[in-house]
Amino acid sequence: MNALPTPAAAIADDVLVVDRLRKDYGGSTVVDGLTFSIRRGTCYALLGPNGAGKTTTLRCCLGLTEPDGGEITLVGEPVPRHARRARIRVGVVPQMDNLDPDFTVTENLLVYGRYFGLADAEVLARVPGLLEFANLAHKKDARIGELSGGMKRRLTLARALVNDPDLIFMDEPTTGLDPQARHVIWERLRQLLARRKTILLTTHFMDEAERLATQLAVIDHGRKIAEGSPRDLIRAHIEPHVIEVYGDGAIDWAARDGQRLADRLEVSGETAFCYAAEPARLLQALEHAASLRYLHRPANLEDVFLKLTGREMRDEA
Description:
- Helix content is about 35%, strand content about 30%.
- It is of the alpha/beta class.
- The protein has two domains: about 15-230, Rossmann fold; about 240-310.
- The strands form three sheets. Strands 6-7-8-3-9-10 form a six-stranded mixed beta sheet, sandwiched between helices.
- A hairpin with a 2-residue loop joins strand 12 and strand 13 (about 270-275).
- Helix 3 (about 105-115) packs across helix 4.
- The longest helix is centred in the middle third of the chain and has 16 residues, at about 180-195.
- The model is unreliable at about 1-10 (pLDDT under 50).
C-alpha cells in the first residue's frame, strides 16, 4: 500500500542554516545573532518563553519577514532573496489551523497543492496516501466543520506534506489537543523522521521536544542560551534526581531542612523543588515529615528549561 510519496531528491546534509540572524522591531532586538543548522532526517526544536523570538525566527527562515542581519540558507537557497523558490520544497504546520471550512477534506488538499503549481491529477494521486497517513480516509468527503480538533490537526499535517517537502516547519503542532490526539501526532511525526524527512519544531511541551527532537536550542530574548540533544542538556544542567515537596509546611521545611539536604533548591508557589545527585538523605528526612507530600522523579527537559529561563510567567509578546 502506498502511504506517502517517496522522499524528494537528496539535498545537502544541512537542510537549513541560520547564521547570526538578527531582527529588530521598534528599536528592540527580537532575534539577536541566532545561529543554528538542521541536518537532513532530524528534528530540531526551538524552545523559549513567550516573546523569546521563536515565531520571528520561523518567519525569517521562510522569507516572510525581512531580517536585519545575518544569513539564511533554506534547502540550499539563500533567503529572503530566493525564498519563494525555497518554499516550494517546504511544508508548514501553523500554530492555528487555517483549513478552508467551505471545502471538503479532499478539496482542502487539492486547493493547497495548486499553490505549489501541482496539477490536480498529481495531487489527487497523492490524496489517498496522505489521508491514510492522517487516518482520515473515512473523512475524505467531510466538511471541515464535521472534524474534531485532532482530525483538523492531522489534516493540517497531511496538507503540509502535499508537495513532498524536504523540511517541515511545525509551530506548536499539538497545542489544544487532548493527550490521545497528541500521541497520535507524535506517532505520525516519528514516521516522517523514519522516512528521512526533516522537522523544525517549536513547542511549549517539554515532553514533546524530549520525545521528538534530535537536537534543540533554548532561546531567550532572541539569543541562544543552550543547544544540544535533550539527554545531553539534562545531564549538563540538572542534577539527576528531583524531589518536589508540597503540603502544609513545605516552605518552612525547605528553609529549615531542604537547604542543607539538597544540592540545589528552588521554591515556586507552595512547592519546593529539591535537586540532588544522591537523594537518599532527602528521602529519609521526608519519610519522617508526616504533613508533607513529595514526588521523586528523574530530571527532565522542563527542569532545564525552567533553570535557564526562570519560573516567572511571561506574557505573549
